[in-house]
Specification:
Layout (H helix, E strand, L loop, with lengths): L2 H4 L7 H8 L4 E2 L1 E6 L5 E6 L2 E6 L2 E8 L5 H6 L2 E6 L5 H6 L13 E3 L5 E3 L4 E13 L2 E13 L5 E4 L2 E4 L6
């Protein structure tokens, strides 16, 4: 018997799936790379996580419908900028269409030759280790070659909106 044909029908809609996922608070990043024309591309992502400590690896995904996908598939290196709670407008800017998302954004270049945005709480500079098509997304696994920690609180995304963390009393 074919396993796929024995799978039960889904008992939820795409909307219900999104709402259930929204209960998992995630950090907010801007993933960036240099395009073939030497300009930069980047987008807001909350699909970011660690994979391995030895070697250091991270994972993120991008929709197969994204206009940025060809640039990231061609990029050998990229940066992951972990946004601070003071960077909500950057998160919004990089999640919407914009002629040049990096115009006026203070940043510097590091090892990956990709933008490291000023004011972030952390940065990761990666080489592409692997890419896998999975459903309607492409999953990217990057080997981290450089990283740094900034100051402040990270921006999070929870229940379809931006938020920040707070400490609970010990």
């Amino acid at each position: 018997m074919d396993r796929a044909s024995s799978a039960p029908a889904r008992a939820f809609t795409e909307h219900q799936f999104r709402d259930a996922l929204a209960q998992f608070a995630t950090g907010v990043t801007v993933i960036a790379a240099r395009r073939g024309d030497s300009r930069f591309t980047g987008f807001t992502a909350n699909s970011f996580t660690s994979v391995s400590l030895d070697p250091p690896m991270v994972l993120w995904s991008l929709s197969r419908r994204s206009a940025s996908l060809p640039a990231f598939e061609a990029a050998e290196r990229y940066s992951v900028n972990v946004l601070s709670d003071a960077q909500i407008e950057l998160a919004r800017r990089f999640s919407r269409p914009h002629a040049d998302r990096f115009e006026g954004v203070p940043c510097r270049l590091g090892w990956a030759d990709a933008p490291l945005i000023d004011g972030c709480v952390a940065w990761f500079e990666c080489s592409n280790h692997a890419r896998h098509r999975a459903g309607d997304h492409v999953v990217f696994i990057g080997e981290v070659h450089a990283c740094a920690r900034g100051h402040g609180r990270g921006l999070v995304f929870h229940e379809h909106r931006y938020a920040t963390t707070r400490d609970f009393p010990s």
